[in-house]
Every structure is written in C-alpha cells, then in structure tokens.
Amino acid sequence: MPIPVIMPKFEMAQESGKILRWLKREGEAVTKGEAILEVETDKVAMEVEAPASGTLVGIRVGPGEVVPIGQPIAYILLPGETWMEAPAASSAPVASPPSGAPRATPLAERLARAHGVDLSEVPGTGPGGRVTKADVEAYLARSSGAEVPEGKVKAVPAARRLARERGVDLRTVEGTGPGGRIQSADVLRAAEAMRPSVEAPARGAIRRRVPLTGMRRAIAERMTRSVREAPQFTVSVDVDMGRALAVVEELSAWAEREAGVRVTLTALLIRACAWALQRHPALNATLEGDEILEWETVNIGVAVAVPEGLVVPVVHGADQLGLLAIARALEEKAGRAREGRLRPEDLQGGTFTLSNLGMYGVDRFTAILNPPQAAILAVGRVAKRPVVGEGDRVEVRPMAALTLTADHRIVDGAQAARFLDDLRAALERPGILLG
Fold this sequence. Notes:
It is a single chain. This protein has 435 residues and is an alpha+beta fold. The chain is built from 10 helices and 19 strands. The chain has helices at residues 106-115, 133-144, 157-166, 184-194, 214-229, 242-258, 265-279, 323-339, 344-347, 413-428; strands spanning 3-6, 16-22, 29-30, 35-40, 45-49, 54-57, 66-68, 72-77, 232-240, 285-288, 291-294, 300-302, 304-306, 309-311, 314-315, 352-356, 375-379, 383-388, 394-407. Strands 9, 12, 15, 16, 17, 18 and 19 form a 7-stranded mixed beta sheet that branches.
C-alpha cells in the first residue's frame, strides 16, 4: 500500500505549511530519510523527509500552496506496487485505519449509543477518518437543528485563543481547514470584518504597510501568551568576564587551526549554563498542564536573529558536551538558521533559553520567557567598567550584566538567585567547568 507523505507538524501552534519547492520529481526514486521537499511554517523553512524508500508519486500540491497539517501531499510507492491515483486531498484521510481497528473513539461510541446514532452516518475527522466525540456532537446538533455551543465548534486551539482575544463568536466563522475546522486565519478574517471603518488620524503619509503574518505573527502570538499567562520576574548579576574572555581567545585560535571551528563567548555561556542547570534542576524544567517537569538532559535554545525575526535552535545534551562540541553544534545550527535550512529537530526539545545581545552593543536587557520553559537568560555586552576590588582598590574590569527571567509558578526568587550565583562563579573561574 502506498505510504502517504503528509504535511508534518513542526511546531506546537502550527496549523499549516506552505510548499516552497520539491527536491524530488514525480516518479523519482527516494530513500527513507532523504529530503524530498521544503516547507515553510510561520517560523522557519524546513525540509521534509521521505517516510519510506520507493518511488515518489501522486504529488498533489505545488510551490506556493498552503496545506493544513496532516493532509497528504504525495505518496511513496513501495517496490512491486502499482500506482493508482488516490482520492482528492480534500476528502482523503491521512491514512486508513488498520484492519479491524474501531472506526470511532470510545467516547464517540458511548455518546452514539446514548442517543441512538448510527456511526456509519457520521463523517469522521479524526486520524484515518475515525469518528470523534466532537463529530457525534456536531451530527446531533445538525439532526436536531439546535444551535451548536461555541465550545463544540470544530476549531484548532490557536483559533479558539484568537477568538477569545478578538471577541469573535466561533459559531459565526466559516472554517477552511480539514473537515471545515476553523483555523487562526479564519478568525482573523472574521475579526477584520467586525471592525468598524474608522478614518485614521492625521499622522502624515504611511511609508509602507507590513502585514502581521508569518514569523512576525507567530512571535507576536507566542510572546503575548507568555506575558499574559506566566507571572514573570527577573534577577540580575554583574559578572567579571576577564577569565572567560581569556579562555575563549586561547581556545578559539587552537580550535580554528586544529578543528576548523570557532569558539565564541556564547559557546562558553552555554557550557556554563548547562553546568549550573545541573546543580539547579528546578530551572531546567517546563510547565505542562498541572505538572512541572524537571528534565534529566539539558537542552539549551539560543535565540538567533534572522531577517524575518527570531528563531531558537537548540543545542541538545549541552550538559554532556565539551566546549568544542558545543561550539561546533552552535555554529552549524546558527548557520542553518540564517540560511533558512533548519530541521524540525533543531527547534524541538529546548529546556532553557539563552539570548545574547552583547554583539549589538546592548548593556543589559530583560528577555520574555519562551513557554513552556521555566527560565531564559539575557546577556549584555562585555564592557570595561570600574569595580571595587580587594583592599577597596578600584580596578577597570571587563564586566557583563546577566539577567534571568523566570516563571514564578515554577521557580522562586531564591532558586533563581542561587542559579545566577553559580553561573557567575563558573564564568569568573572557568576551571570549575572542567570538573
């Protein structure tokens, strides 16, 4: 049976993806894991890999087309199989349920029995066309002519959140997603139609209008949600970076010559953060539902500026890597980010985030939490400043401000302060990191 190539979900809030280009042609042989097309999401461009080895057939969408997640976009014909054109994408499920598998979820079956509904008459919108509880409820509402409660309207979570924010009644919105499911774009169109036409005040000529779409919209929604939902607090320390800079300078010259990789201050910051997070696991955590999850592995995301906005590739297992390995991983992922070639795994699994604006001449700043993570560290530039040393002697030292933003639901002030104290110790005495 041909294997469907579906529009994958790269990000938690992703609803659709745009086809950028096909890397393989119709009828061409492909190998499992080989990149066969490029897809653009709200955040970044990604490569989609072949789910099996065989022949690429049935390409349904071309460059520039937007496809909901989970929708088949092509098929892989396995060796020995003959290709027969599949149904249109609008009606084809992602995959047929296995032979003998129940056609409906247990909740849908119980609800159908309670109301005497024949499940064969209910169109399913779940995986493989499976009937869900929402499908049965929608069928009952249509059959009785009753008004569907807003909470029962088929809509993706991001669309429901937008509807609450914009005051849009989901029952008045026409969905354009699979099975008529309401997407965020549908809510935005409805909100725009509700807005009264008001003449703009005289502020001079508009230079240009920039739609809040794509990556910019994704960042706006994510950061707004972060500030609205998480009680955030910040703590700061000033760190003498003299020894840290010396280590970076000495190791960088050797690493470029011997390994072809450049060791940067950001790489050392990642190594120091990983060491401190091992000592303070409460900050290497995420909040998911009613649970705080403390993670064994330290995966540090690094904010990288790209022309469209900001992406956060992740250095996985930073607590298990030496400084040279971290520098190499950081160089590779930052390079892919700027070239728009990040892979899904590059953005997933972060447990802590580092944002360094020192290279832009920023002295200090406060970063917004990257949900659902417990904390994010903001790093300012290293600058020479007068400090009082031993014996009350004033010295000029290379100093940097480190500001930690934390979620007060997960972390308390004392925990954040102890983490920063250890991080400062590691940067001021980098030999600690060799232990």
